[in-house]
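Contributing new records

If you add data, match the layout below exactly. Sequence lines come first and carry their own label; structure lines follow with theirs. Keep one chain per record. Anything else will be rejected by the validation script.
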Amino acid sequence: MEWDVVTRRFAMALCAAASLALAAAPARAQTKWNLPGAYPLDNYHSENLNWFAKEVEKATGGQLIITVHAGASLFKAPEIKRAVATGQAQIGEVLISIHENEDPVFGLDAIPFLVSGYADAKKLWQAQKPVIAKRLDSQGIMLLYAVPWGPQGIYANKDINTVEDMRGLKMRAYNVATTRIAELVGAQPVTVQAAELAQALATGTANAFMTSGSTGYDIKVWETISHFYDVQAWIPKNIVLVNKAAFAALDGTRQDALLKAGEAAEERGWKIAPEKAKWYVEQLKAKGMKVQPPEPQLRDGLEKIGEQLTEDWLKRAGADGKAVLDAYRTSR
């Protein structure tokens, strides 16, 4: 009898221990990733990142948690790609054109008037994507997805009717293309990333720039700048990068969830982008800014600059770059 009691107690203890082990297993298996981004929390790119992170968490039953660090709070914009490559962050979002110095194909989407609208921008992405993915793969990075910005316009504190009117301005530059545009119009290029742009305008470090309506809205540009010219010069893209080793360490279920959420986030981002682009420009006007399309002379001047930048880009990009550009032009 006593032996039966001992046996039952032992069995109960084993069951209790097994239950505790099962309860603890999910906690031990949980993986946490950091996702640095460069833009404010309420920017639609950051909102899309948070949506993506929640989808991953939901699909994995909480076994892969991705924390989004918006507003360059974890790493500054130019540092994010390297952070992902070195494993300091497992995943991150970057404006790919800021890395054109590494490879010209990274900056193809920043050439003025190469695309006309989001349909063209998507075709350009399809042409760029295989080459960008291959380049990133060699750096220990996996390309996950891409989302476009709104079309780029000109911000200034005076009338800009021709490219000559931009001469002498202190133009914010953030990549090869914007630096070159400033030089070609006779402006002074000043390197400023998005997170520092409001301060640069307030201090007079920069007094003109080319970017989307969303960036202008994010920094309350109407407090320092009076004019916005909706030239729709180019449509750049943010891409989301994953450290290859971190991805390989995930089990198949979590890998699949990450890939599927990435596909959904890309589709969602491309749908939202044109809607938000229109809304942001409307907001600039509502805040009292002078918002208008470019004069024909200004557009003509910018198109000539676009032709010059395309020629310069082809010289740097060589045969591989020409193949990408040809593939895009053929798809239009």
